Structures are given as structure tokens and as C-alpha cells.
């Protein structure tokens, strides 16, 4: 007898999924309206199930044993802080020790009960990419998390949503596609990144099709803005209702610049490859945490919880992911959470404050902590640049005299721009905005492209420390 094929379309109890993780518009009167106590109970019940899943995985069982935690004593929310955290390095070592997927995910010999699966990767910028398996629930809930955000920002059935992310091993493009196609009744315009469809063509599609919304990184929206300016394309003539983006460490400058250029509101969202879309911003400007799918803890450097509204590094627990389980995953992003409150949009949830940066990308320059991404606002605020920059980090001197240096290479808008005058101004403004002295080099338009790339994640740091 042939072994049965696990069809995707019959692998999920769809009405149950919709009830458990309500997509829009039902979210607003279900999960998005639960009382504090009802939400606590829901989280408690989901967390207990995830703890039971984790206890069966060698990855967690070994860590808990080493930390002196008995799985039988771990029952719910109150015990969560007793469990050890782990970070992406540990996922990578787990992959190396038990290739290819690691001890936190089922090996192919154990796949019979969990198929169909999809493989995605993340974190290719430093070290080996992390391989992550997604079961249908993980894929669809990620779509639902994103659809809640898109809907709150104005997406409606029939809207064309342009997605300049390549549906590759990276996750974002798929998550946007699932959100628009499966959970919004929208029409996904899957143009792929600039590598697949050039920026000029992306703009042409938007004009021809009447794109209503974009799902795009702020960096790429900045590049589209610069290209539009260069070719004399009128962004205000487009039918853009909103831009769904990831603004990262922005003090409002990037948002304003994009919003003015596109004549549409720009919304900041926050997500992770492993746990999905953690928070989305509504039209009232609140970043709502998808509390029925994730618990966000904020800890100080010693692993202790910080008070509400205080920044620390975020530790995530996924409530819907079984393949694999993510219990107390230290994502190493600096974030802060505000307590639950009813928003003007009607949703009741915990609220996320803007991301300050990745702990890993922080550079200590003569005693000052700097996030290279903070250069974005200074560079893009000056019309003599085209917004493109690259932070080159290196060591100078040797022995005790060795110092960390950062040089910001900035593209001038055209070769007509006076490079010396621009450099002088940028030196002064970056020193003031970053709080530390950095060097500046002005380069010609397009010169940084070989380093920054054409992908959806534009590289802004060139780290020469390991080479030296
Ligand atoms: Zn709201």
C-alpha cells in the first residue's frame, strides 16, 4: 500500500485555527479585546502545552537539567522566568552538533507525524544560516499576525499589496504573501527584491496596477524614493494608502521623510524570523503585541526583568510554534514594553516601543554605544545625499594604542555636489547625532552598491575587524 500523502489543505483544522488565532476583522473583537485575566488564562494554557513539547526535546531537556530545573515543576507563566534563555549562537551550535537541524527540531527520521514542512533560513549575515522548519500552523499564524497589522493599517479585500521581498529561503516574503493572499482577500504583487525586479520596474508596476499598500523595509523604500527622484517619477500620483514597514531605530525622521515622499502614512512593525510578527502599528500609532501568539520579556544585562517602559534585551516565547518550540529565546534586540491598555483603535494589548537596535550590532566607540543604523536619519535628512551609506568598522594602531574606528561612506546625489562641503557638514552632524566622532568619506552615486547589495536587507556595516 502506498503511504498516504500529507496534503497541506487537509493537514490543518481550519475553522479551529481561525478560532484559536483570529485573523482580521474578528481579531479586534476576540483576541484583541480579551480582559487581562482572560488573556492571562489563554497564555497560561498555550504556554503549558509548549512547555510539554519542549520537555520532550533534547535541546531544552539538557539546558533545563544544567540549570537545575525539573520539567515537572515548570507549570506556567509564573515559572517561565526560571527557565534558562538561549540565543541564536546556541541554535547554531545545536545545528552543528546534530546536523542539519539541531536538537531543537525533529530530524527527518521523526518527520512522519509532522509533515508537511517548509524550510526557511535566517541570520546569514553572521556565521552559518539558521535552518528553521515551519509546520502549516506556524506558516499560517505568521500570515495571520501580519494580516492583523495590514488590516489595521488600512488594507482591505481587493487591495493590491506590493511585496518587494523575494520568496526565497528568507521568511519575510512568504509571510507577507500568506497574510495578503490567505487572510486578507488582497492581491499580493510579489515583485521580489530589487535583484528580481529593478526599482524602476517596481514603480512602474505600482503605477500600472494601482498598488494600495507596500510591505517593504524602510531602507528599500528609501531606495525607491531616491530612484523616483532620479528618474522624475511622481510618487504622489500613485494610489498608495499606506506603507507597512520595519523602521527599526528611527527617531521619527525616516518615517516623516518617507511619509512626505509617498504622501501616505508609514507604519512601524516588529518581527523575528523564528516567532513571526510580534507587534504591528495601528492607525493610532500604537505597536500592538500579538499577545495570543507571543510573550515578550524585557531583561537587563544580568537577566533580570526591567520595569515597564524600560529598555533591555527582548526574550521571546512563542505560544503557537511547536515545530520547533521557542521558549525564552533571547533575540538580542533592544526593546521596551508598555502595560496593557485600550487603544483609540479599540484593541486592548501590551504595547511595544520602537526598537533601539540590535545588541550584536552595537559598537563601543571611545566609551559611547553606537548603532550604525542610527546614521540613516542624519544621512537621509541631507538632500545632497541619495540616502545611501555604509559604516566601515576597523581597528587602527596596535597593542595598547589599538582603537576602534568607524568611517561612514556616504553617496552624494550627483557628481555636481561639492564633496568637501558635504563631508564637513556630515562630520559635524554625525558627531552630534551619534555622540561620538566618526570619519566620513563622500563617494559617487552607486559606489556602495557592491557592498550594500540589492536584496531586501540592505547591508549597512562592513566590519573589517576580523580581517585585521
Ligand atoms: Zn491601536
UniProtKB/TrEMBL annotation:
Disordered: annotated span: 82-110
* SUPFAM superfamilies per the UniProt record, alphabetical: Acetyl-CoA synthetase-like (SSF56801)
Q: Which GO terms describe its molecular function?
A: ligase activity
Q: Which domain of life is it from?
A: Bacteria
Q: Which is a Pfam family this sequence falls into?
A: AMP-binding_C_2
- AMP-dependent ligase C-terminal domain residues are 367-465
Determine if Ligase is one of this entry's keywords: yes
Chain segments annotated as transmembrane: none
PANTHER family noted in UniProt: BLR5969 PROTEIN
Spell out the protein name for this chain: Phenylacetate--CoA ligase
**Species this protein is from:** Verticiella sediminum
Instruction: Provide the organism lineage as a comma list.
Output: Bacteria, Pseudomonadati, Pseudomonadota, Betaproteobacteria, Burkholderiales
Amino acid at each position: 500500500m502506498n503511504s498516504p500523502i500529507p496534503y497541506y489543505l487537509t493537514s490543518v483544522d481550519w475553522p479551529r485555527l481561525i478560532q484559536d488565532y483570529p485573523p482580521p476583522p474578528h481579531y479586534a473583537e476576540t483576541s484583541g479585546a480579551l480582559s487581562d485575566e482572560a488573556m492571562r488564562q489563554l497564555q497560561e494554557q498555550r504556554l503549558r502545552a509548549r512547555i510539554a513539547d519542549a520537555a520532550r526535546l533534547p535541546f531544552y531537556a539538557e539546558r533545563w537539567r544544567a540549570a537545575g530545573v525539573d520539567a515537572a515543576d515548570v507549570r506556567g507563566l509564573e515559572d517561565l522566568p526560571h527557565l534558562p534563555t538561549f540565543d541564536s549562537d546556541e541554535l547554531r551550535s545545536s545545528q552543528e552538533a546534530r546536523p542539519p537541524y539541531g536538537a531543537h527540531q525533529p530530524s527527518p527520521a521523526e518527520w512522519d507525524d509532522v509533515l508537511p514542512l517548509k524550510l526557511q533560513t535566517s541570520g546569514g549575515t553572521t556565521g552559518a544560516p539558521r535552518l528553521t522548519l515551519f509546520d502549516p500552523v506556524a506558516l499560517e499564524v505568521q500570515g495571520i499576525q501580519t494580516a492583523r497589522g495590514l488590516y489595521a493599517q488600512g488594507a482591505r479585500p481587493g487591495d493590491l499589496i506590493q511585496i518587494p521581498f523575494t520568496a526565497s529561503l528568507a521568511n519575510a516574503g512568504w509571510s507577507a504573501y500568506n497574510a495578503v493572499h490567505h487572510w486578507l482577500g488582497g492581491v499580493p504583487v510579489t515583485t521580489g527584491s530589487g535583484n528580481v525586479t529593478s526599482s524602476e520596474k517596481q514603480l512602474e508596476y505600482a503605477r500600472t496596477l494601482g498598488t494600495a499598500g507596500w510591505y517593504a523595509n524602510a531602507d528599500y523604500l528609501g531606495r525607491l524614493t531616491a530612484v523616483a527622484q532620479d528618474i522624475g517619477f511622481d510618487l504622489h500620483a500613485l494610489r498608495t494608502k499606506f506603507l507597512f514597514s520595519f523602521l527599526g531605530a528611527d527617531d521619527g525622521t525616516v518615517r516623516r521623510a518617507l511619509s512626505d515622499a509617498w504622501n501616505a502614512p508609514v507604519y512601524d512593525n516588529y518581527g523575528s524570523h523564528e516567532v513571526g510578527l510580534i507587534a504591528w502599528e495601528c492607525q493610532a500609532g500604537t505597536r500592538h503585541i500579538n499577545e495570543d501568539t507571543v510573550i515578550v520579556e524585557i531583561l537587563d544585562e544580568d537577566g533580570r526583568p526591567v520595569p515597564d517602559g524600560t529598555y533591555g534585551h527582548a526574550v521571546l516565547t512563542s505560544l503557537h510554534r511547536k515545530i520547533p518550540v521557542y521558549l525564552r529565546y533571547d533575540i538580542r534586540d533592544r526593546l521596551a514594553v508598555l502595560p496593557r491598555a485600550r487603544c483609540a483603535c479599540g484593541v486592548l494589548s501590551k504595547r511595544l516601543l520602537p526598537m533601539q537596535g540590535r545588541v550584536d550590532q552595537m559598537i563601543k566607540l571611545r566609551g559611547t554605544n553606537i548603532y550604525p543604523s542610527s546614521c540613516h536619519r542624519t544621512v537621509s535628512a541631507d538632500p545632497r545625499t541619495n540616502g545611501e551609506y555604509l559604516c566601515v568598522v576597523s581597528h587602527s594602531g596596535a597593542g595598547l594604542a589599538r582603537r576602534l574606528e568607524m568611517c561612514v561612506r556616504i553617496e552624494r546625489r550627483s557628481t555636481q555636489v561639492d564633496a568637501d562641503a558635504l563631508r564637513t557638514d556630515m562630520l559635524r552632524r554625525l558627531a552630534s547625532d551619534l555622540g561620538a566622532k566618526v570619519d566620513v568619506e563622500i563617494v559617487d552615486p552607486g559606489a556602495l552598491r557592491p557592498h550594500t547589495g540589492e536584496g531586501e536587507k540592505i547591508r549597512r556595516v562592513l566590519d573589517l575587524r576580523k580581517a585585521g
